[in-house]
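Exercise 7. Given the encoded structure of a 569-residue chain, write a plausible sequence.
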């Protein structure tokens, strides 16, 4: 449909039975005018190449929770309401007064509830619906409703999506595939300056806050934290999915009129209604009378006086997937003139209000009815949730699953983090320099901020605050056990840090040649073996033995070592 000057999609959700479990069916419905416009537009397969991920938030309009009279918000943990403290356990009654929003009788233009801690959450009740939400909540009056907008971390958003787009009881690899697809979808929708990025309905993705009873869902999200689908360096703009594709995915060009490289038509052996019991649930039959088809015709043409005549069943054409590519309807217009309408692409599904375009049509002359026998739900683009479940049960990983449904796309982790870290040496003599080298990855890169904290025997002895320096050097003058903790954060991050690593090294005395923490006869023997050895002529040169740093290992070094003979560190 066309909304506010931009092309939008609309999805719908069906609840179906799958071996005793519920599976949500999500598909997109496009109005006929959409396809007329789309034929003149070039569809972008991707958007932007650089994504900042850490601490990423998304704004969700809670369309399903809006209320025209009253809402109740109960807080667990401390919050602030427009800057004033709201104590743990407080329940707030929200209402409408003269077009403004009220909280326990006090009227405001908008109300903002912000948690004091990351574990705080808000329980929102609208009518008979009660849901829990992390993050902050803004309440405003929108089209006569109290309208909540939840600003939440992207990971908490994904946890509130996949448990309702799938089921917590589904195989872990299927849930992980859904988590990556849903995270990609959400990340792509984030836009600066908007009232909200997505709403919580099937117009985007179903989102119902967090559910404490879920076990597998949070594990799947944490296991894939920061992972997003990319194609040629760009975030997928169409990380689409549906409950069932009827055994064949569809080419985007056959739905939208323009190709999308990672959405191709191909047989899906794991979403085969002839092989899997959970796929058989998606066979369907719809029967229409001539009068019902006349009503549909007038509704779609936005006129009256048209009269359905027939469907040309002999000329129906199909794509390789088995979905209808062309179907002709004969009808009489209001003047009695015979007209023919051709339906193609997704309109072959949406015009009749059918679950998918994968159907055949038969006419019962005696009853005067047309029977549409079909398979699957939705457009067939992207991931099949049934296919993902069957693939997971067959041993495929979530990366395997995503690779099949999004051709050529890759799963990339966009968390800013430490990719590699190393010390030039782990056993050091006093007076020797030790150097740490750090390499960052992900986030908005390639520029990161680094902080260094050095401890000796558990006590902090040096601290270097955040800077762009990715190396750290230190020359110890005392023996002991040292730990260098490196903190990294993205230059755009508001976190204390996004990743950290600890590097350990041990410092011993200058004369402990064999590093056994004792200066004794064995160290003298090691020195004597290289007696009178010059670093320019000896391949066995070892700087540790040149105790007086004159470039020669000789009697003077032996004498210097003997001063600490049998000294234990």
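Solution.
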């Amino acid at each position: 449909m066309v909304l506010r000057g931009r092309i939008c999609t609309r999805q719908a959700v069906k609840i179906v039975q799958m071996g005793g479990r519920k599976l949500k069916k999500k598909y997109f419905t496009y109005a006929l005018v959409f396809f007329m416009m789309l034929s003149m537009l070039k569809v972008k397969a991707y958007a932007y190449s650089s994504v900042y991920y850490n601490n990423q938030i998304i704004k969700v309009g809670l369309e399903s929770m809006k209320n025209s009279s009253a809402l109740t918000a109960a807080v667990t943990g401390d919050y602030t309401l427009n800057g004033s403290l709201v104590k743990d356990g407080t329940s707030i009654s929200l209402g409408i007064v003269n077009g403004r929003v009220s909280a326990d009788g006090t009227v405001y233009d908008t109300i903002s509830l912000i948690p004091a801690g990351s574990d705080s959450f808000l329980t929102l009740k609208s009518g008979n619906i009660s849901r829990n939400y992390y993050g902050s909540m803004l309440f405003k009056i929108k089209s006569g409703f109290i309208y909540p907008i939840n600003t939440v971390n992207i990971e908490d958003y994904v946890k509130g999506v996949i448990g309702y787009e799938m089921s917590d009881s589904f195989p872990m690899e299927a849930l992980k595939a859904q988590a990556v697809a849903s995270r990609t979808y959400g990340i792509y929708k984030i836009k600066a300056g908007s009232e909200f990025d997505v709403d919580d309905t099937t117009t985007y993705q179903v989102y119902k806050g967090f559910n404490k009873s879920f076990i597998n869902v949070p594990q799947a999200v944490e296991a894939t934290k920061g992972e997003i689908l990319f194609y040629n360096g760009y975030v997928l703009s169409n990380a689409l999915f549906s409950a069932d594709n009827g055994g064949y995915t569809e080419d985007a060009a056959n739905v939208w009129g323009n190709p999308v490289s990672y959405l191709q038509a191909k047989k899906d052996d794991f979403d085969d209604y002839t092989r899997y019991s959970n796929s058989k649930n998606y066979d369907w039959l719809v029967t229409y009378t001539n009068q019902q088809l006349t009503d549909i015709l007038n509704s779609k043409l936005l006129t009256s006086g048209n009269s359905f005549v027939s469907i040309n069943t002999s000329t129906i054409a199909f794509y390789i997937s088995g979905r209808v590519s062309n179907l002709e309807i004969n009808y009489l217009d209001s003047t009695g003139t015979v007209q023919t309408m051709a339906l193609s692409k997704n309109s072959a599904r949406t015009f009749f209000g059918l679950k998918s375009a994968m159907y055949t049509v038969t006419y019962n002359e005696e009853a005067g009815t047309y029977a549409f026998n079909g398979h699957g739900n939705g457009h067939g683009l992207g991931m099949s949730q049934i296919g993902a479940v069957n693939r997971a049960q067959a041993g495929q990983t979530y990366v395997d699953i995503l690779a099949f449904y999004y051709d050529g796309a890759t799963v990339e982790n966009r968390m800013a983090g430490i990719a590699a870290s190393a010390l030039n040496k782990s056993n050091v003599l006093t007076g020797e320099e030790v150097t740490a080298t750090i390499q960052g990855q992900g986030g908005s890169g390639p520029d990161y901020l680094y902080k260094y904290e050095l401890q000796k025997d558990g006590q902090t002895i040096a601290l270097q605050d955040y800077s762009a320096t990715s190396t750290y050097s230190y020359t110890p003058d005392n023996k002991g056990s040292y730990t260098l903790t490196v903190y990294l954060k993205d230059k755009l991050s508001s976190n204390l840090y996004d990743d950290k690593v600890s590097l350990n090294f041990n410092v011993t005395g200058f004369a402990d040649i064999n590093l056994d923490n004792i200066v004794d006869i064995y160290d003298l023997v090691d020195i004597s073996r290289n007696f009178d050895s010059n670093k320019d002529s000896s391949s066995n040169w070892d700087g540790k033995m040149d105790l007086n740093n004159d470039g020669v290992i000789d009697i003077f070094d032996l004498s210097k070592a003997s001063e600490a003979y049998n000294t234990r560190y």
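Remark. Residues 1-56+158-281+376-415 form one domain. Students should compare their own answers with the one above.
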